[in-house]
Design brief:
Number of domains: 2
Structural class: alpha/beta
Oligomer: single chain
CATH class of the largest domain: Alpha Beta
CATH architecture of the largest domain: 3-Layer(aba) Sandwich
């Protein structure tokens, strides 16, 4: 059995265990999925198996979606029934406890100061997903608390929310290690994101947001598997496990490029989010970042 296939099996088992802990008793599997499971190892039915350990990106509902892998289909069709507030809080507390002692990436577990699990309202309709913690986040154990996080908080407030009325998390729960570097960050590897993704999937199953905002190219890659560049992807709706996803620039990009036009692009993305959520948008709010 290949290492990739073993990792896929482990990720699937972990995800199913999380669903069971949340009260799920069954998942729906298509005939194609069952056929794929029945195929010999290394010879999946219908083509090469995806061993990414995460659901595949799907096209918007108006477009035909490509056939996904067995694990992708199982994940996409196994969303549990809505949980009441108490059940959500119990499930999230259990998930957090498991994440806090995670050792799946030994080098990250050895170098981290804190696991950066997530923060905010687990009953919120809106969830922001970034790529990985930085030094400030690792120090405090909370996502988006550095300069980029402060800008994200301003964006959230401009939308009419507060930081504690949305939920904020990352694909990776530990800061990517930077051997030999006292400062700076690095992009998480595909393997690191694949290993950590089951925690985010479980968070999504518990929160069940109405909209996800994917912050930056790496978050889009980790969540949707798309690598076409955030400039091309931003502003266009995607879908992940039945939830609309709006890709947009990472706040750190706006710190590097303070052009009003770039701020306006992000704001136009957020206006689409507000529209989908049915939130009222006043004329003044709609026209932000049009003039200096």
């Amino acid at each position: 059995m290949s290492v990739g296939y073993q990792q896929l099996i482990e990720a699937t088992i972990q995800h199913l265990e999380d669903l069971k802990a949340q009260g799920a008793r069954f998942i729906n599997l298509s005939p194609e999925t069952l056929e794929g499971f029945a195929s010999p190892l290394g010879q999946p039915s219908g083509g090469t198996a995806d061993v990414s350990g995460r659901p595949q990106a799907v096209s918007p509902p108006t477009q035909s979606a490509p056939r996904s892998s067995p694990v992708a289909e199982a994940s996409a069709s196994s969303a549990p029934a809505p949980l009441n507030r108490e059940a959500k809080e119990t499930a999230m507390a259990g998930l957090r406890a498991r994440a806090m002692v995670c050792q799946k990436c030994p080098q990250l577990a050895a170098s981290r100061k804190n696991v950066v699990f997530g923060v905010g309202d687990i009953h919120s309709p809106l969830m922001f997903v970034g790529e990985a913690p930085g030094a400030d986040e690792d120090e405090r154990g909370e996502p988006f608390v550095g300069k980029a996080g402060q800008l994200l908080t301003k964006i959230v407030q401009t939308m009419g929310f507060t930081r504690d009325t949305v939920y904020i998390a990352n694909i990776l729960k530990c800061r990517p290690d930077t051997p030999g570097q006292a400062v700076g960050n690095r992009k998480p590897t595909a393997g690191e994101m694949k290993t950590c993704l089951p925690y985010l999937l479980a968070q999504l199953d518990i929160i069940q947001p109405k909209v996800i905002v994917a912050l930056g190219a790496t978050a889009v890659e980790g969540l949707l598997g798309e690598t076409g560049g955030i400039t091309r992807l931003r502003g266009h709706w995607r879908e992940f496990r039945g939830v609309p996803v709006m890709p947009t620039y990472h706040p750190a990009y706006l710190l590097r490029n303070e052009a009003l036009s770039e701020k306006r692009k992000v704001w136009e993305d957020m206006l689409q989010v507000l529209q989908l959520l049915g939130r009222p948008v006043g004329e003044k709010q709609r026209n932000y970042f049009l003039k200096a």
